[in-house]
Every structure is written in C-alpha cells, then in structure tokens.
Amino acid sequence: MEEKKIINIVIALIMAIAMVASAAFISNGLSNIKGKQNTITVTGSAKQQIKSDLVKWTGSFSAQSKDLKDAYKQLKESHDKVKEYLTSKGLSEKDLVFSSISTMTNYEILPNGMQSTKIDSYRLYQTVQITSNDVDGITEISRQATELINQGVQFESYPPQYYYTKIADLKVNMLGLATKDAKDRAEQIAKNTGLKIGNLKSAKMGVFQITAPYSTEVADYGIFDTSSVDKEITAVVNCEFEIK
Fold first, then answer.
1. Which residues neighbour 186 within 8 Å (Cβ) at sequence distance 6 or greater?
2. 75 and 7 in one domain?
3. What is the distance between the alpha carbons of residues 64 and 71, in angstroms, rounded to a whole number?
C-alpha cells in the first residue's frame, strides 16, 4: 500500500514537471512569434470631390497677306474685334492679356514640291488669355468665342484649364483622413489575429492623384488633371504600427 502511494506521488510529480515544461515551451513560442512580428504596415487612402475655383482660357487669332503691313493691319482689326467682343461679355480690359505678335513667313512651293526662296505670304498670330475665378462664366465664353468668325476674325478657342487654388490646405486634411483609414484597417487586421494596435511608428506619404471624377487613372508620379471643372483628389499614406 505504501509502495502504491509512492508510485502515485512520482507520477504526479512527472505530470507537473511536464505541464510546466509544456507551458514554458508555449510561452517561449508565443514570445518568439511576437518578437518576429511586432509591427504591421498598412496602406490607407482618402478621396474627396472638389470643384475648380480658377480657370485659364486662351484664344488665338491670325491674319495672312502677301504684304507684311497689310497682314499687320488685318491683325490689328481682329485684335480690336476680339477685345470688343470679350468686354461685351462683361470682362474688363485689364482681364485680357494679349501676347506679342508672332510672324510666320511662307515661301512659294516649286512644281517639284521643293520650297523656294521667294516669299509667298506672311501669317501673323496673336493670343488672348484670361485668368479668372468666374469658372462657369469663362467656360461659357470659351464655347461661344468662335462667334468671332462671323465677324471675319480667324479665331480659335482652346480648351480651358481648371485649377483648385486651396489644394495645399486640402492636402493636410486628406493626409489626416488617409492616416485614419490606415489605422482602421490595421485595427481590423489585428483584431482578426487576436492582437492590438500600438503607436504609429512611421508614415510615408504617397503621391496625390487629382483626376476627373470616377477616373481609374493612376500614375507613380501623380496626376494633376486640368481638363475637368469637377475633380476627385485621392491621398495615399503607408503607415507602420506597433502590435501588442
């Protein structure tokens, strides 16, 4: 009977030692896992719709004649008609920026298709540019300006370029939203693995993409769309968080 008790005590001691060893092994294993994976890197993003608050529009007009003085006279008449037309649309003369005159010399073409040294005509060019906060108004003028053709002006209207002047302030806010998105993603990932998110260790800002709404266009160097009045700005940030 006494011998049986001794055997039972020995068995109990062996089991206790085994449990302690097993616990130590598991603890050491978890410690190693945590040591190897003590951070998590997540990409966060934020989007926002914006409307341009500045527009730049350019139109050009020209005149051509065999006589340089006559070409200049025609261009001056076109210049006056362009100025009168634009001011009639409510624009101030100080808003109109006329470029210097560019001159192109055209030479006669020989029967063999080669260009001769004899001058055939002169073509003179000039542009007018408007920069304004009246985005809708200038957009409408850019569409109607070819009416000048009916007045004998060889006029060409170029597509307006649209900008958002408060982009610097907006970028700061967008980065905050993108960082918050990264933290939310990191917390969700950590939660699914039974861990928790600690402090933010580092954050790296990606390039901003300013595109037409709903565009899927992306570039490593960033995009700055100027063709659309309404735009969408996307901010991306890569964040590294501690896990515990």
1. 40, 42, 197, 239, 241
2. no
3. 5
Give the total residue count for the chain. 244
* pLDDT value at 19 more than 60: no
CA distance 52 to 211: 12
Report whether pLDDT(21) > 70. Answer: no
Q: For the ranges 68-72, 75-79, 110-114, 120-124, which has the lowest average pLDDT?
A: 110-114
Residues 23 and 44 in one domain: no
What is the structure's pLDDT at 37?
57
Q: Distance between terminal CA atoms of the chain?
A: 53
- Distance from CA of residue 213 to its chain's centroid? 11
| pTM for the whole structure | 0.75
User: Which tokens go with 72?
Assistant: 């200049």
Number of C-alpha atoms within 13 angstroms, CB side, residue 102? 10
Task: Please identify, among 112, 145, 162, the residue that sits at the C-terminal boundary of a domain.
Answer: 162
Give the CA-trace dihedral at 205, 210, 211, 213, to 10 degrees: 90
Mean pLDDT of 19-32: 37
Kindly state whether residues 47 and 66 are assigned to the same domain: no
Q: Tell me what the mean pLDDT of segment 146-159 comes to.
A: 96
At residue 111 the predicted structure's pLDDT band, cuts being 50, 70 and 90, is confident
Strands 197-205 and 97-98: unpaired
The amino acid sitting at 156 is E
**Centroid of chain to Cα 81:** 38
Q: What share of the chain is helix, strand, coil (3-state, %, to 5)?
A: 40, 35, 20
